[in-house]
Amino acid sequence: MSDSTAGLRRKINSAKDLQSVVRTMKALAGSSISQYEQSVHALEDYYRTIELGLAACFIGRTPFILGDDQKHKINVSGAIVFGSDQGLVGQFNEVLADYVINALSKLPGKYLLWAVGERMQARLLDAGLQVTGLFNVPSSVNAIQPLIGQIQIETEAHKVFGEFANFYVFHNHPNSGVLYQPVSQQLLPLDAHWQQELSQIRWPTNNLPEVILGNDTLRELIREYLFISLYRACAESLSSENASRLAAMERADRNIDELLANLNGAFHRLRQSAIDEELFDVISGYEALSVKLPPKKSLFLDN
CATH number, domain at 127? Predict the structure, then answer.
């Protein structure tokens, strides 16, 4: 009986240790979500500034296609997919990969595809897609900016040689209802409709803006616009990843609570059974000693 209770006690202690790890991971995931959400929120003012700068460039200007090489009529698209290399995220990569495969199948012409994360790359390769390049998944907010810089250098190098005109970004977007959902955004070319919307933004002062250096300024503003768009996509992907991990840890925490309840119940029943047996032995012994023994015969005969 003691061996059984000792075994249950070891299982209970192991479950408590595992629950401590799970709750630590829950706290880390929650903290990471907050950091990534704050990083996206911090971009809003800067994005507004870039919008105003672009609006100033397009005011009174005839819309034209930006980022499209009409001279060569190239029919090649570029795309980057933000995945995850961490565990305990459920179908995070699978859901996004299926979405990317379906979206790329509808695009005309060829494409160049970059993956963020080895697991996402492996998933795309298994589906028969060709992956041009691979980037590491950032492990913190501070690592996002260097990653976006690498992506811009890589993609702009291909763009300079005219390898693609359209550019898409795929990632998982946080969603309160289903944790996250796969989304896509076309970053290039910057079409006439996009320019028309920017030109209609109301200038915050009565003084009309003046653009210095013309196309050079416009080119730098577009580069910053692309940087912000990629940064936001990466941060939202990481936020979705941690939301998925948080949900998994919450499920694990509930399962461990149920397991502990069952183990503690079994331990207490076993312990109570052992106590009952000990009490039964004591009572049985007491009753045995309480029985009156017959008088012993004397060894000496009476005269």
Answer: 3.40.1380.10
Query: Does residue 300 belong to any structural domain of this protein?
Result: no
The DSSP bridge pattern shows strands 166-175 and 133-135 to be: unpaired
Q: Which domain holds residue 77?
A: 26-250
Note down pLDDT in tens along the chain; length 303 residues.
Answer: 455 888 888 999 999 999 999 999 889 888 898 899 899 888 888 888 888 888 888 776 665 555 444 444 557 888 999 999 988 888 999 999 999 999 998 888 788 899 999 999 999 999 999 999 999 999 999 999 999 999 988 888 877 556 666 889 999 999 876 789 999 998 888 777 777 777 788 888 878 777 776 678 888 888 899 999 999 999 999 999 999 999 889 999 999 999 999 999 988 888 888 777 777 777 777 677 776 556 655 555 554
- Picking from 187, 202, 205, 213, the residue whose alpha carbon sits closest to that of residue 59 is 202
For residue 238, is it within any domain?
yes
| Domain total in the chain | 1
Prediction pTM value: 0.79
Sheet holding 76-82, edge to edge: 133-135, 110-116, 76-82, 166-175, 179-188
